[in-house]
Write a structure and sequence with these properties.
By secondary structure, the protein is α/β, with parallel strands linked by helices. It has one domain: 3-Layer(aba) Sandwich (Rossmann fold), CATH 3.40.50. It is built from 6 helices and 6 strands. Strands 1, 2, 3, 4, 5 and 6 form a 6-stranded parallel β-sheet that branches. Strand 1, helix 1 and strand 2 form a beta-alpha-beta unit. Helix 1 packs parallel to helix 6. The protein is globular and about 55 Å long. It starts with a strand and ends with a helix. One of its GO terms (molecular function) is NAD(P)H dehydrogenase (quinone) activity. Keywords: Oxidoreductase. It comes from Rhodoplanes roseus. One of its GO terms (cellular component) is cytosol.
């Protein structure tokens, strides 16, 4: 199994970084291959624009989705987009790891969605949700929060987590036709003690290996049949 970890946190000693390292080490330890897109370390530019393309379909009026479709057909995406798209295509499982900020993903990850998951490449007319391009890929959100589990509940101040994550879980992962797995959340990561952090990491290690094992079993069954 090949796994892409899209990691979005500017601090190398963050708990998001620990979750990323845990996943990579666990997966590699049982023979899976792993790539990491470290968006901050690699200087990924989250701002969409004309620089996304080495040529444009219409030099007089810039329409982003039209230009994305042209670039996909003509092979004229900028090199950083091509790099990330190739990483995405290679992956059987994509894991997005990030701290939840203002109820959403960090801007750098939103920019990754905007620029990399382009029209023509990641979706098209009639190619969304159940008819999307990537039914054989799995996707999971792995995030940290400052708020406690209670705050992300029906009676909590932030509302239920499913509602908070809807713009990414439904309108990105499921939109692409991927198998959207239940998110993994380390609640109140900056506030809990070391024992709780270690428990989160152990639970995450178990979860990611279970996902990889399930995929490996399916692949073996397909090979045998």
């Amino acid at each position: 199994m090949h796994v892409l970890l899209v990691y979005a946190n500017p601090e190398p000693t963050s708990f998001t970084a620990a979750l990323t390292t845990t996943a990579a080490e666990a997966l590699r330890g049982v023979g899976h291959s792993v790539e990491i897109s470290d968006l901050y370390a690699e200087g990924f530019n989250p701002v969409a624009g004309r620089h996304d393309f080495v040529e444009t379909a219409d030099a007089t009026r810039f329409h982003y989705q039209t230009e994305q479709g042209h670039a996909h057909a003509a092979g004229t995406f900028a090199p950083d987009i091509v790099r990330e798209q190739q990483r995405f295509l290679r992956a059987d499982l994509v894991v997005w790891l990030y701290p939840i900020w203002w109820g959403n993903v960090p801007a750098i990850l939103k920019g990754w969605f905007d620029r990399v998951l382009a029209f023509g490449f990641a979706y098209a007319d009639g190619k969304r949700f159940d008819s999307g391009f990537f039914p054989d890929k799995k996707g999971i959100l792995c995030l940290t929060s400052g708020g406690t589990r209670e705050r992300f509940s029906r009676d909590g101040v932030y509302g239920e987590l499913d509602q908070v994550l809807w713009p990414v879980q439904r309108l990105v992962v499921e939109y692409l036709g991927m198998q959207a797995l239940e998110p993994f959340v380390a609640y109140a990561a900056p506030r809990v003690d070391q024992a709780a952090r270690e428990a989160y990491l152990a639970a995450w290690r178990t979860r990611i290996l279970e996902i990889a094992s399930a995929r490996s079993t399916i692949d073996m069954e397909r090979t045998v049949s």
